[in-house]
Amino acid sequence: MKTKKIFTCQNCGYQSPRWLGRCPDCNIWNSFVEEDYSPPAKKTKERVSLYKDEPVLLKEVEVKQRLRIKTDIEELDRVLGGGLVEGSVILLGGDPGIGKSTLSLQISNSLAKAGYKVLYISGEESVAQTRLRADRLIQEKIKDNLYIVSQTDLSLILEYIKKIAPNMVIIDSIQVIFEPSVSSSPGSVSQVRECAGILAQLAKSNGIVMFIIGHVTKEGSIAGPKVLEHIVDTVLYFEGDRFALYRILRAVKNRFGSTNEIGVFEMTSFGLKEVKNPSALFLSERPKGISGSTVSSILEGTRPILVEIQALVSKSSFGYARRRTQGFDYNRLGLILAVLEKRLGLVLENEDVFVNVVGGIKIEDPACDLAVAMAISSAYKDRFLIKDGLILGEIGLGGEVRSIIQPTIRIKEAEKLGFKIAILPKNNLRNLDYKGKIELIGVDNLKETFSILFS
Question: How many CA atoms lie within 13 A of 10 on its CB side?
Answer without folding.
Answer: 20
